[in-house]
Design brief:
Low-confidence stretches: none
Radius of gyration: 12 Å
Distance between the termini: 39 Å
Shape: globular
Strand order of the largest sheet: 1-2-3
Number of helices: 2
Length: about 70
């Protein structure tokens, strides 16, 4: 499997959707960009802490313009 320098995660309710692929031995990137909405800020912080334990640098960004569609 090809390894990438940076992995982009869209933070959602289920943290394992981001943890499992990011920590996979064949994929493990050096950096992770965590993009979250206001509802999931704490989840993004939790993920950053987990990834830091595995020596993966995390950057957290909010998606301020997000709007839910009916």
């Amino acid at each position: 499997m090809q390894r990438f320098e940076t992995h982009i995660c869209l933070v959602c309710q289920n943290e394992e959707f981001n943890i499992t692929p990011t920590l996979h031995a064949d994929f493990k990137p050096r950096n992770v960009l965590l993009i979250y909405t206001s509802w999931h800020k704490q989840k993004a912080l939790n993920l950053a802490e987990i990834f830091n334990r595995y020596h993966i640098k995390s950057r957290i960004m909010t998606c301020l313009k997000y709007q839910e569609h009916p």
